[in-house]
């Protein structure tokens, strides 16, 4: 009877230690979770699709006129979709189980050329497997570009738009600052600080 009691106590201690370790892994997964901007799609400026353009020479006469008129009236309403990936580095290699996470909320603010513009949140939850990367998920952007960047000429402003969402876009002018909230096996957790998301690399902070 005594031996059985000791065995039960040992088992409870081992199980408890494993649970604590798994909980710690979940917390570390949130702390170390990384993000990056993958690509930008469907860039439209004042209703004109510029996502397939290398430069302004590819515009039709009508589109060029409409864009120039929109610039002069300071109504360059711009829409595009930013696709983001999240990486969960916890693969269980430090002991315990890989901690899969579900991204429940990601309130974000978009910076264009280091200037704050619009904010929003994800529309649906995103699964992030332990030791893996999520499928790219969209952030839908709608912003008046002329109100964010109001000190540049027409050609400079359009060059900025094409660098973000044109045919050969490398959106280095975009930064997404966000605060992730994730669901873990041990409850919902929110990052204590915002994450700066760029397109050149995965970042955790």
Key structural traits:
205 residues; Immunoglobulin-like; 4-stranded antiparallel beta sheet; 4 helices; elongated; disordered N terminus
Q: What is the assembly state of the chains in this entry?
A: single chain
Count of runs of 4 or more consecutive helical residues = 4
* CATH homologous superfamily title: ApaG domain
Total E-strand runs: 12
Helix content: 25-40%
Give the CA-CA distance, first to last residue.
Answer: 54 Å
Provide the domain count: 1
Provide mean pLDDT, rounded.
83
Describe the structure.
By secondary structure, the chain is α+β, with helices and mostly antiparallel strands. It has one domain: ApaG domain (Immunoglobulin-like, Sandwich). The strands form three sheets. The chain has a four-stranded antiparallel sheet with strand order 2-1-3-8. A four-stranded antiparallel sheet has the order 7-4-10-11, with helices on one face. It has a four-stranded antiparallel sheet with strand order 6-5-9-12, with no helix packed on it. A hairpin with a 2-residue loop joins strand 1 and strand 2. The radius of gyration is 23 Å and the shape is elongated. The termini are far apart. The N terminus is likely disordered.
Helices, strands, pairings?
Elements: H1 2-32, E1 34-45, E2 48-49, H2 61-72, E3 77-87, E4 101-105, E5 108-112, E6 115-120, E7 126-128, E8 137-144, H3 145-148, H4 154-165, E9 174-178, E10 181-184, E11 187-190, E12 195-197
Antiparallel strand pairs: 1-2, 1-3, 3-8, 4-7, 4-10, 5-6, 5-9, 9-12, 10-11
